[in-house]
Amino acid sequence: MQPEPLLYGDRKVYTVSAFNSGVASWIARLPTLWVEGEVIELRRQPSWHRIFFTLRDPDEGSCLAVTMGRAEFDELELDLADGRRVHVQGQPELYQTRGVFQLRASAIEPLGLGDLLAGLDRLRRRLAAEGLFDVERKRTVPSIPERLGLVTGVDAAAKRDVIAAVTTRFPPARMVIAETSVQGARAPLAIVGALQTLAAQSGVDGIILARGGGSFEDLLPFSDERVVRAVASCPVPVISAIGHEHDTPLCDLAADIRASTPTAAARLVVPDQRETSNQLNRLRSDLGSAVVRCLDHERSRLVQSREALRQAPRRALERARLMVERDGQRLEAAVRLAAERQRAQIDGLLTTLRALSPCSTLERGYAIVQAQGRLVRTTRAVSPGASVAITLWDGSFTARVEELQQRAER
């Protein structure tokens, strides 16, 4: 819709909103185009739906604001950073609320590297699908390596940085260095050969693959498929230290350890001798204290055992005496009980014997009559005039039968 001006006599005056709307409508008719520049002021926040940066002409200093949807930007996986020269495709527009002219980007490609980046991304995805970058494959370098390999450029600064860091932190560590080409078309095969040479040497605990900073093109050999596969298949752990923190060649993904710089790689694989010495001193002190405590404990146990051994015979005799006393008391009680039982049994028999004895009967006034040595039980056993012997309780006498009297039968 065509913005309408306000009329002040002969003067036509547009409001800011109307002016911006008109300009935005005119700019919207401009075609989609490509713009080349250097990325600066890249801004993104997790809560933002769009990312913002500025394209600067490195020769003239002119600037252009650029915005792009966050989802579209993330899909590109460019690892874009300040200072990178890029081609940006987009539609010119005016942000009406603030009157800011900007380019709404639909595509971003690093300058001259579009096809190369796409190829590297395809290679990365293919190698990742093969499992070359899996975390489960990662190995660790021994905490105190005795021998380290170093693959680096000929007389490179990275070589000096690694050697200086290793010798400063841990002088006893030995290094085997393979200098090789790290840039150019011949570099990939040279790097693979150097890796294989060091890995074949006996006693190498790990290999540092180091190169200092450089342009994207300078670091391309370290994304070569042959180098990546050589790093992944190396029989000893590989520490990749290529470029700077923002550089991520594919060999970084295949390596067992990734370091941001060559110096950082040395710090990761060798301990600090002073810290190690201090730790050993602490461990030695702790071990000495533990030994003293152990000896004190064993000495105390020995004293207790000696005292227990000294007291053992007396305690054994005391236990035996108590057992003899208890057994004697039980035996005495058993004898006493048996005697009482026998006495009671005899008393019972005596009582029974007394009850059955003829003397008891005689004592109650009865008498025993015998004739011719035989016991007279009935009147039929004697006749008148017979001589009989009569036994009483306190003696006996003889008598003659004068008359027999028989008891009437009932």
Present the secondary structure layout.
Layout: E1 6-8, E2 11-13, H1 16-27, E3 33-43, E4 50-56, E5 63-69, H2 70-76, E6 85-95, E7 100-110, H3 114-129, E8 147-153, H4 157-169, E9 174-180, H5 187-200, E10 206-211, H6 225-233, E11 238-242, H7 250-254, E12 257-258, H8 262-269, H9 273-356, H10 358-363, E13 368-371, E14 374-375, E15 387-391, E16 396-400
Parallel strand pairs: 5-7, 8-9, 8-10, 10-11, 11-12
Antiparallel strand pairs: 1-2, 3-4, 3-6, 4-5, 6-7, 13-14, 13-15, 15-16
Entry keywords:
single chain, 5-stranded mixed beta barrel, alpha/beta, 5-stranded parallel sheet, 10 helices, 410 residues
Detailed description of the structure:
The structure is a single chain. The chain has ten helices and 16 strands. β6 and β7 form a beta hairpin. The chain is of the alpha/beta class and 410 residues long. The strands form four sheets. A five-stranded mixed beta barrel has the order 3-4-5-7-6. α4 (157-169) runs parallel beside α8 and α5 (187-200) packs parallel to α6 (225-233).
